[in-house]
Amino acid sequence: MIKSLLLFHEPQVKKPFILTEDSGNVNSGNTNTGEDSAKTGENKEPSRRKKNENLLLKKVEKIKLTDRRERNQKDQKSDISRQLSENLKTIEERFSASLNGDLIIRQFDITVKDSTIAAFLVFFDGLVNTKVIDDDILQPLMLLSNLDIKGDRDDILKYIRSHILPHNQLKEVRTHQELIDEVYFGGCGLYIDGLDAAFAADVKDLPGRSVERPNNELVIRGPQEGFTENLRANTGLIRKRLMDQNLIAENIIIGNRSKTPCSIMYIKDIANETLVNEVKRRLKNIDVDYIMDTGELEQFIEDNPALPAPQMLATERPDRVCTMLAEGRVAIIMHGSPFALVVPITSNDIMYSAEDQFLRFPYSNLLRFIRILAILMSLLLPGIYLAITNYHHEMIPTDLLLAIMSAREKVPFPSVVEVFLMEISFELIREAGIRIPGPIGPTLGIIGALILGQAAVEANIVSPILIIVVAVTGLGSFAIPNFSAGFAFRILRFAFIMLAALSGFLGITVGLILIGLWMVSAKSFGVPYFAPIAPRTSGGFTDAIFKSPAWKQEKRPDYINAKQQKMQPRISRKWALANENNQAGGDNTGDQNG
Amino acid sequence: MKTTKPAVITRVIKMDRGKRLIAIIMLVAICPLLASCYDAREVDDLGFVIAMGLDRGKTNTLRMTLQIAKPMAGADGGSVGDDLPYEQFSVEAPAVFSGLNMINTFASKQISLTHLKVVVFSSELAREGLKPYLNAMLRGKEFRPNMPIVVARHTAEEYLQSVVPKLVTNAAKYYELVFQSYKYTGLIPKVEFHDFYLASKSPCRNPVAILGDAGKFLSAEEFDIKNSTYMDHHRSMPFEGDFFAGDIPALGGARAENVGLAVFEGDKMVGELDGTNTTMYLLCTGDYIHSYWTFPDPLAEGRYVLMNVKQSRKPKHRVEFVDGKPRIDIMLNLEGDLVAVQSDIDYETGDNSLVLESAAEDYIKDHVQKFLDKTINEFQSDICGFGAYARAHFMTWAEWEAYNWHTKYKDATFNLTVNFKVRRPGLILRSGTSEAMESRRDDQ
């Protein structure tokens, strides 16, 4: 149909090749979480959203996503046999041992008083710490075991688990699939002849970066640690900052083939339960083969894929994630990606940098003001320049007008063509600058742009005023702290240039209204995108556009609907009170609310 | 049968959003087709007029002179001096906009009046009445309401041609700056077009215009002061304001001079006033800001005390009716900073300062009185706007209009008070000499 050619579709759910009639258990679980919102009493999702949810659920019901996963699990749910040779054969088959060069199967014998028991290890070379395997698994089993086989089979299991294997993470598994999953995540599987259970030890030493500075969010004042690609390292970085006993890190596996482990982190007695359930629901109901990075994940679970502004914050800094968790948001961390996603966010959050909370409030307010200016300039400056020089000549002071005239006398193109030319070449240079090797890349890009611009002016292709306009616009887009938002404004800038060239300020106004309408009606996980400005909520303003001092941030943002609203009492700096209670001595952990 | 059912449901969802999207796309795509770039003009396709002059024409009603700004080529410092920053065109036409059309027959760029800085009328045209031309300027969207109106003593074309700005490369800047000089010289009035138009229709006051002319003297040998009004002011030689435009003995710079004002009755010009009277006009209306005055020294003959006179408060006006005739009370509050005392007498302290102050008060009172008498006797035109203060005595607007202030103004009497205080002595706190020097001089 013509309509389907013209329309932009949301990514369609893939139809599986079997359509059945019965609804699985997971679906009813989904509807339950949808109705859960009544329980907490703080229902932030309006009824229209529930209607969409119900429609989506109907779709899901018809299409039966989960059926496939259940079927996969059924096929492979086989118990471990007591015969070691059978287990060996199963493992070799499942792992394609003849083809996989990095799979190691180590067969050995466990010495017992008078007999030997065969066993074998299976692990991936490159994912494991071989020293730990040698010292803590092979050595005790092969050299130091003193099995008393007088006891029962189960006793042997328990004996091995609690006495023989001095390893800190040991799991007893009864199905092959569980063990295979563990081995793939850097574990080491141990099969022992005669036992119908196997052991999976976590000996992972995944190759990867160590904790370094974050590449993209540099601050001067503040911690200089950034996430790495290792899931446990990332969750560890967060846990070491937020030693809250209610900090939960739930596990979820995403991706049918990549089986990427993800972690949903939230603080149990602050975060809204419906929010957490919604995040879990969305993550569990993605049907995809591979997910490589949180960038992809973001596209799968966001509300409005077409909105120019991002609806989730992708950050490399653990301290930023911790701050947001403490406000009641939920973080999604994925194995293999150094960017964590934080939901829900509003338009103000894309304007913050990580440093705002560490600086004193006059400095951070100045920086925010400059960022707002930068956003406005990067979006509107070429458009306004075009509108004024083409339509509204009376607005320029005569001096400037004559200067522009004399500059434009020699240029053969109309100003629209000039602006497009320069903007597109600036974008080309920026893109090329990313690929220039070494640290000089981006710097060279900007300087190259200016030099190129100068040369173009000398050749009378563009006028010098335009170079300044384009350069200031480019700088403004660099000043936006959020990477995705910067892109959004880069794209919208072109739309505004077109509009300004067509109808001057009227076009710009129409563009602003349309973009405003679109963004104001957008939601990020149930939270309106422009809260607390539109709709106006109470109490969200201490940090909305301009930041109040740190000791004045008393309430959590209202639109998050956290379980506990108060973050700080009205007077946080208790030492300033003339009071005998605030003498030095004694710790103050009792006073803080968790 | 079963497979079509989900298709129906899903298509319903798509349709709503699709309809919306299609509607938006079509609206956005149609707008450029309907009106695209309708009004767009590149800046270098337009010729911006910075000054317009209107004279009585020989073959037609009007001779219109336009000065169009030339963009100075680049920042390389285009040749200064010889090259005029504007081009001047003249054409004879029946009215303003037809003149624009005619000029466009030989000027390549489309004329745009959005940056018009000044309109100059010839005094011949002004004496006949400016109403027909004011209407075009008020109605046109392109005319800026804050531009000054100049009456040229001879022809506007001559006046405009004599503008050769030496200190600026941008002709528009020249016009912007030169008509702001009322703020610091007091020798031209503050005139803005919208104010001029309102005053020409108002029953309370009458408008004024700046008086301008091309300087007469081309070399120092030609200097003479026979046209100066210093005799009227009972002086032995002309002070800074005792001239009309064009008579100032000066050389160099742009030859166009602006001194004095043109007095109007309604929209017709009835007379001219020189620079000193213009200063008094500014004092009475309250638009005066500050300027340097020359006072004759009260204690030393032939010497002057120069002071920077500022308006410390706006003048207070009051109109009372005595025997049916208006009596206008004006109180002026001025302050002065000593700039030069040529006779070295210490006016800073003691009784001398009071002597100076009262002398200055008398001087100012004298001049203001002369100015006001002139408006009554010679022009019968209330240019200072005292009628606005007489309105309070009437209950309704119809009564006020029936009273017809313009005819009653000539019977008015004035009651002037001037408060003058010397505030700052400059950098010399006490002028005086040592006793030895004084005694030596006394001996001599």
Topology overview:
The complex is a heterodimer of chains A (594) and B (444).
Chain A: H1 2-6, H2 25-35, H3 37-40, H4 47-63, H5 66-76, H6 84-95, E1 103-111, E2 116-124, H7 130-142, H8 153-164, E3 170-173, H9 176-184, E4 187-192, E5 198-202, H10 231-241, E6 247-254, E7 260-267, H11 273-284, H12 294-301, E8 313-315, H13 318-327, E9 330-334, E10 340-343, H14 361-390, H15 398-408, H16 415-435, H17 441-458, H18 464-478, H19 483-520, E11 523-524, E12 527-528
Antiparallel strand pairs in A: 1-2, 2-4, 3-5, 4-5, 6-7, 7-9, 8-10, 9-10, 11-12
Helix pairs in contact in A: 2-4, 10-13, 14-18, 14-19, 16-17, 16-18, 16-19
Chain B: H1 4-35, E1 46-56, E2 62-69, E3 86-93, H2 96-103, E4 110-112, E5 118-122, H3 123-128, H4 131-139, E6 149-152, H5 156-161, H6 171-178, H7 193-201, E7 208-214, E8 256-265, E9 268-273, H8 275-285, E10 290-296, E11 304-322, E12 325-341, H9 350-379, H10 387-390, H11 397-403, H12 405-408, E13 413-424, H13 435-443
Parallel strand pairs in B: 1-4, 1-5, 5-6, 6-7, 12-13
Antiparallel strand pairs in B: 1-2, 2-3, 7-8, 8-9, 10-11, 11-12
Q: Could you explain the architecture of this structure?
A:
The complex is a heterodimer of chains A (594) and B (444). Chain A has 594 residues and is α+β, with helices and mostly antiparallel strands. Chain A has helices at residues 2-6, 25-35, 37-40, 47-63, 66-76, 84-95, 130-142, 153-164, 176-184, 231-241, 273-284, 294-301, 318-327, 361-390, 398-408, 415-435, 441-458, 464-478, 483-520; strands at 103-111, 116-124, 170-173, 187-192, 198-202, 247-254, 260-267, 313-315, 330-334, 340-343, 523-524, 527-528. In chain A, the strands form three sheets. Chain A has a five-stranded antiparallel sheet, sandwiched between helices. A five-stranded antiparallel sheet of chain A has the order 6-7-9-10-8, with helices on both faces. In chain A, a hairpin with a 5-residue loop joins strand 4 and strand 5. In chain A, helix 10 crosses helix 13 and helix 16 (415-435) packs across helix 18 (464-478). The longest helix of chain A has 38 residues, at 483-520. Chain A is elongated, with a radius of gyration of 30 Å. The two termini of chain A are 58 Å apart. Mean pLDDT of chain A is 80; it is low at 14-46, 71-77 and 590-594. In chain B, helix 8 packs across helix 9. The longest helix of chain B has 32 residues, at 4-35. Chain B is α/β, with parallel strands linked by helices. In chain B, strands 1, 2, 3, 4, 5, 6, 7, 8 and 9 form a nine-stranded mixed sheet that branches. Helix content of chain B is 32%, strand content 26%. Chain A binds chain B through residues 3-4, 6-9, 55, 58-59, 62-63, 389-391, 393-394, 398-399, 401-409, 414-415, 501-504, 514, and chain B through 6, 9-10, 13-14, 17-18, 21-22, 24-25, 31-32, 35-44, 46, 48, 50, 69, 71-74, 112, 114-115, 117, 142, 144, 170, 172-173, 176.
